[in-house]
Amino acid sequence: MLTNADIVDLTGFRHALHRQPEVSGRERETAARVASFLPAPDAVVTGVGGHGVAALYDSGQPGPTVMIRSELDALPILELGQIPHASETPGVAHLCGHDGHSTILLGLARLLARNPPAHGRVVLLFQPAEEDGSGARAVMNDPKFTALTPDWSLSLHNMPGIALGHAWLAPGPMNCASAGLTIRLSGATAHASMPEDGRAPTGALPRLIDGLRTMGPGGAMGPGFRLTTITHLRMGEPAFGIAPGEAELWVTLRGLGDEDLETLLEQAKTLARDEAAAAGLGVDFEIHDHFGACRNDPDATAVLARALDANGIAHEPGDLPMRASEDFGRFGAVSKSAMLLLGAGRDHPALHTQTYDFPDTLIAQGVAIFHSAIRELLG
């Protein structure tokens, strides 16, 4: 178990991380701080998939590899919470709790350094770029990851709206797949007094918006769930004398599974091509923030459930699966993986809001959950 001194150290470290946040793909200093705070790992691999850090605790005996993952990145949001350890970087803040998740792994590292696993090995992965969906793919594509490939992958995410210290956990779908699609329409400008001389996207945009909304109506979670959300729209120049010749529309697409999302992406592109052709416009696309679906393996879920029970932590399926996406799901392609949601409090400020802060009381609880899971799998 962690000592009181451990808790003080870890809480102070979490606050230090919170003061110096870095956004996706730029977590250089965060990664360096994490690596320097690791207690006696058998090996540390840095620069994994960007600024990722992997700490290895190896028994030296045959056995499976268990990976526990946290995230390094913060969000490009201005923090407004009145806390002593508030962000010192304007417009950037840890408003999702990744500072807390990484601190949990550092607490777990202390226990592993004192009492290594009897068999196999543990990989503590501090993943970069989770918020934009690029980090897990980059980690898995990095040759450095080959030697670290896990048999089991476990993680948690704190979740406001759930009672503090309680958990949601269930096998099967956990998080939706999602992608941001940028649709650019190109025509020709004209004088505002003679719009017929140009090719404007004015008529195509409303039909495109209506069509996108119809193909992803949302509703109850379940097989075939799809949701489209228009997030940004821009057309022409901010001038009264010019009929617009181009437009840009951003839409976030979600599906319960990867196939649902891919089908929705192709349907959205087909709709945009058809509307562009009807209006005599060109069209092109970009895809951003592409998250794979996250699905909890039944065996890995059972391991986490027993770890929760061993620590007296109440848990239930709750409202799973979630509409929100999570980059962790990609590790399910190479391992038995599962994630749980650990309650941050029913009335706690929501994730990604300007007054959110990770509850420090979850540090010890998160460490205990993962430590119990490792002991079951590795002894």
UniProtKB/TrEMBL annotation:
The Mn(2+) ion enhances activity. SUPFAM superfamilies: Bacterial exopeptidase dimerisation domain (SSF55031), Zn-dependent exopeptidases (SSF53187). Its cofactor is Mn(2+). It comes from the Bacteria. Mn(2+) binds at C96, H98, E131, H157, H352. InterPro entries: Amidohydrolase (IPR017439), Bact_exopeptidase_dim_dom (IPR036264), Peptidase_M20 (IPR002933), Peptidase_M20_dimer (IPR011650). Keywords: Hydrolase, Manganese, Metal-binding. Residues 178-277 form the Peptidase M20 dimerisation domain. GO terms for molecular function: hydrolase activity; metal ion binding. It holds the Pfam family Peptidase_M20. PANTHER family: CLAN MH, FAMILY M20, PEPTIDASE T-LIKE METALLOPEPTIDASE, PEPTIDASE M20 FAMILY MEMBER. NCBIfam families: amidohydrolases. This is Amidohydrolase. It comes from Pararhodobacter marinus.
